[in-house]
Amino acid sequence: MIWNKEIECADRETMRALQLKKLKETVKYEYDNVPYYRKKMDDAGVKPEDIESLDDIRKLPFITKEDIAANYPTGLFAKPMEEIVRIHASSGTTGKPKVAGYTRKDLEIWGECVARAMASAGQDSKSVVQVAYGYGLFTGGLGAHIGAETIGATVIPMSSGNTKKQIMFMQDMKSTALACTPSYALTIAEGVAKEGIDPADLPLKAGIFGAEPWTQGMKESIEKGLGIKAYDIYGLTEIVGPGVSISCDENEGMHVQEDYFYPEIIDPETLEPLPDGEIGELVFTTLGKEGFPMVRYRTRDLCYLMREKCGCGRTTVRMSKILGRTDDMLIIRGVNVFPSQIEEVISKFEELTINYMIYVGRENNKDTFDLEVELASGLAIDNIKFIEELRGRLDHSLRDMLGIGCKVKFLNEGTLPRSEGKAVRVKDSRNL
Ligand code: ADP
Ligand code: K
Ligand code: ZN
């Protein structure tokens, strides 16, 4: 199902013309209304009139997470508070949260984008969408909510947590879609199994999962555990929240709502633009947002762009799954390690659940690297021969993937903490 065929299936020329028109307006708007960015442009010697083509975007200075922090809380807002009708903020694991402000029009844009996402996941006005993302400053809950409402679905605003009640409502209200983080979806799937419910008996058809990185292996576990098709929804508070992009039935990347969010991929070191297909840092310019517009915002998320025709009929550019956040990258004994690489390895082992915990520390001037994994149900941790054989195979696969080894500890199923929101899978005590 395609929500907005005219835009989502527009030909390249039409889309580029629309983007250029909106880009020019955005840059002028930003220059006129955000003094901090005006100064950046002045320092770089670039004026709004210098934007004559889409490629001219490269002349513009970036906005970074540090710029947002330096302007905490509302210094980069382009509208007076009177016109701001909603505030959200990202969790801000380090330092102050990043605060975003929305005008009425911004909420409409957000609703439109998430509506496209809901439709891509097969939902319509007859659907019942259970939102199990947290409601609050976090954009997950109200983001999924506004999209489900825009398509006219029945929204169940559960928020996260209380897994038993989630499952009860899912059955009693005949929810057709579940929107939550992939790690919480997995927790719910485990709950379903624990209650002896056959996933095929659930009315649930689709999952709209995002807000954290997840692998194909994780996707398969969730799809099996809930008897659904899982879709990947991407977004970030600074740009709008979830709905910046969504996967389709082809499961080959996420279609970017590029009439509102213009994507670029840059080399995070040289800051030079990279061609389609090359992995780098994702940068977004919002096209038409009023309250908290962003020009060339560096997301720190790593992915690549695809412009080949998609089987679903949409013509919008696709971004690959998020392969990691530069923030999440661990440097262990000089080697770059992403938690998602570990998840990918673990997901290939039937003997393990997909839960894990990474511990990094420092002893005798050397990095320590420990990994806890869980045995799948019914497997005996006291079967030493089996465990040692499994350890051997796991060590080998991890070393293949990461280039370094780690110390693995096996746990019984259900030992590791389960997530209701964004999962915490790394404890790095080196930074304490
Ligand atoms: P934060 O997690 O930085 O406090 P947000 O709640 O705004 O703030 O989350 C945005 C971030 O979450 C993105 O920059 C990205 O790293 C991650 N994210 C969101 N959706 C996805 C997704 N579908 N796949 C992978 N990562 C995602
Ligand atoms: K107001
Ligand atoms: Zn598609």
From TrEMBL:
CDD domains: PaaK. Keywords: Ligase, Nucleotide-binding. It catalyses: 2-phenylacetate + ATP + CoA = phenylacetyl-CoA + AMP + diphosphate. The keyword Zinc does not apply. GO terms for molecular function: nucleotide binding; phenylacetate-CoA ligase activity. Residues 334-430 form the AMP-dependent ligase C-terminal domain. It holds the Pfam family AMP-binding_C_2. Residues 79-284 form the AMP-dependent synthetase/ligase domain. It is an enzyme of class 6 (ligase). One of its GO terms (biological process) is phenylacetate catabolic process. The keyword Secreted does not apply. Gene3D superfamilies: 3.30.300.30, N-terminal domain of ligase-like. Its EC number is 6.2.1.30. Pathway: Aromatic compound metabolism; phenylacetate degradation. InterPro entries: Adenylate-forming_Reductase, AMP-bd_C_sf, AMP-dep_Lig_C, AMP-dep_synth/lig_dom, ANL_N_sf, PA_CoA_ligase. Belongs to the phenylacetyl-CoA ligase family. Catalyzes the activation of phenylacetic acid (PA) to phenylacetyl-CoA (PA-CoA). Monomer. This is Phenylacetate-coenzyme A ligase.
